[in-house]
């Protein structure tokens, strides 16, 4: 099979904040220095922003540096944070934590409630205006190496293959996009990033990454209940105290709110369903009061990297770099990652530009991790480094110890706590854990998964190879069902995995890949690491509006 090839100075895989910031910064430097640099950015979603899902309260610091005139140029940051509220919830009660007792990471003055998808759409326009070639609907499906094992670019996925892998009537082979340097900005648990970490052993000096799943809905609420810029966070109910997680409710413009819930994927009870925990959260009186009389207009879910500084892999390898959440740049204590993504994209671009001007290519951009270590972002992540390890020890004790870490010690404790066990290894056998009785959805405040997936506009061509690959087809029954009561039925937020035939004594796993919202949770939490998420055809998956 012959694939066409196109050559660029830099190839960027992923059109989120990290990839777009990198492309923009490269073109800015080229303009400033009078250099001619070709930059190609591919995005697997149908458009820039289609797959972007975030809380999102945004710290504009990195954006201020990248595009200082963003306000005049119409960036969609229209809801400055007006008030912070943090609640510890019991089943029916809510205790507001005084803002004076909250660590600095929970204060959001100067930040904005945004749709990150819309911010990325705007960043895409800025990148194109600078001359970046952007190709949405093209999925980076394969890393290309030269004879020395150096990264030389990526291949986009084939289109029109049939379910058995053969070429269908509309078959089109992927393209080879070759670059002097390749930036991987696929977001959390990137399909190619995962391969690169393995090939180059990038995690050898890092703690295991730890993850969360964030579930989110967009609602239009009654005008009298809306307060532009109000930011609410919660801990406690409905989660058990030993499980990391919490809720958020952010007031955007146009009487819209973003409401969501994050569950740490280090949980131990295989009966737990993050989706159902989110639905329960919405029924709490303190939260429900905003939703009553309103209308749900969008739904989505996405895994996030929460391990922080000690879980960061080596960022460079011959011919390429990891940026943004593909590397795990997120400040879990602040519940923010977009400023980290923009900053790392810009820093990698600066290192890359210097290399290109010096007529280097396909070597390691060692200046990038050096620039990171000397940046404000490193200082910020260093200060927050103990957040997730403390919170893994339970809500009450973790909150107390992290409060001491931040308020008393100013984030400069003489110790760094470590993550020792990956999330997938933490599940206990189902017979050792209590079942959780989740209420049925009422169709008003709470909903089932299929009606939720419908709102995400998720679509996949049915007759194509399944992009949720099993390394061993027997494990879902012999291990997952037998030992853990098939947890993939519950940790997937889109109802992709079903066990059928149990009543006949012939259980089998059915994979409804058309429902997949590309959150990557199955790839992360599967206890045997038997599920491998790979990219489907380009342009498929969710299309998130205003998320």
Give the structural class.
alpha+beta
Give the full name of the CATH homologous superfamily of the domain at 5-68 and 118-207 and 309-383.
FAD/NAD(P)-binding domain
C-alpha Rg (nearest Å) = 22 Å
CATH architectural grouping of the domain at 5-68 and 118-207 and 309-383: 3-Layer(bba) Sandwich
User: Major β-sheet, in short?
Assistant: 8 strands, mixed
Helix proportion of residues, in percent? 25-40%
Could you name the ranges where pLDDT drops below 50 across 5 or more consecutive residues?
Answer: none
Mean pLDDT: 95
Silhouette: globular
Helical element count?
15
CATH class of the domain at 5-68 and 118-207 and 309-383: Alpha Beta
For this structure, the CATH topology of the domain at 5-68 and 118-207 and 309-383 is FAD/NAD(P)-binding domain
Number of strands: 24
β-strand percent reads 15-25%
Can you summarize this structure?
Helices cover 26% and strands 23% of the residues. It has 15 helices and 24 strands.
Helix and strand arrangement:
Elements: E1 5-13, H1 17-33, E2 39-43, E3 57-58, H2 61-66, E4 79-80, E5 83-89, E6 94-96, E7 112-113, H3 116-129, E8 133-136, E9 140-145, E10 151-156, E11 159-161, E12 167-172, E13 176-184, H4 191-199, E14 211-220, E15 230-236, E16 245-251, E17 256-264, H5 274-281, H6 285-291, E18 295-305, E19 316-317, E20 320-322, H7 338-357, H8 367-373, H9 376-383, H10 387-391, H11 395-408, H12 449-455, E21 468-470, H13 475-484, H14 488-491, E22 497-500, E23 508-511, H15 521-525, E24 531-533
Parallel strand pairs: 1-2, 1-13, 2-8, 5-15, 13-20
Antiparallel strand pairs: 3-7, 4-7, 5-6, 9-10, 10-13, 11-12, 14-17, 14-18, 15-16, 16-17, 19-20, 21-24, 22-23
